[in-house]
Amino acid sequence: MSKPIFVLNGPNLNLLGTREPEHYGSVSIGDIEKMCADAAGKLGMQVDFRQTNHEGTLVDWIQEAGSNASAIVLNPAAYGHTSIAMYDAISAISIPVAEVHVSNIYAREEFRHKTLVSQVASGTICGFGAHGYTLAIQAVVEIVNR
Ligand code: DQA
User: Fold this and answer.
1) Which ligand 1 atom sits closest to the C-alpha of 76?
2) Does pTM top 0.90 for this prediction?
């Protein structure tokens, strides 16, 4: 059995579904978890889906994934723009990391245009709503199976 894909979600993503629907749509974090499980299942993989509002917890989970996961799909939320700790944690592991943002961060405020995570991720998907998670799972599985 291959190791699961860790799908890690950062701060305020627990509020998806009700939070700023003009940016994030109406899909809840529970709906996204189901979408991820389905997308991974079709590719013969499992997901370990988590959300936290705490930067250090994300760092702990990235380190854990380095040993216990095949790949990471990561929506770092606001910490993607600011977190050197997450940048360092991703730099320290060798599994594929797909960064996801539900909204198109490049069509929003200038402070969202730069992400530190994208500088060390395998790739970034943004602006496709919750479907971005499905695309990210397909992308990391493709890399894992290469
Ligand atoms: C987000 C984009 C971030 O800029 C923002 O801070 C979030 C959500 C997204 O999924 O579009 O919390 O990561």
Assistant:
1) 13
2) yes
What token pair was written down for 43?
């590719």
CA nearest neighbour of 135 among 97, 96, 100, 95: 100
Question: What are 82-94's pLDDT values in tens digits?
Answer: 999 999 999 999 9
* Tokens describing residue 133: 């998670």
Radius of gyration of the chain (CA): 14
**CA atoms of 71 and 128, how far apart (whole Å):** 21
The preferred substitution site among 28, 103, 110, 115 for testing ligand 1, maximizing ligand atoms within 8 Å of CB, is: 103
pLDDT tens readout for residues 68-116? 999 999 999 999 999 999 999 999 999 999 999 999 999 999 999 999 9
Q: Classify 10 in phi/psi space as left (phi over 0), alpha (psi -120 to 50) or beta.
A: beta
Q: Which of 107, 104, 67 has the alpha carbon at shortest distance from 89?
A: 67
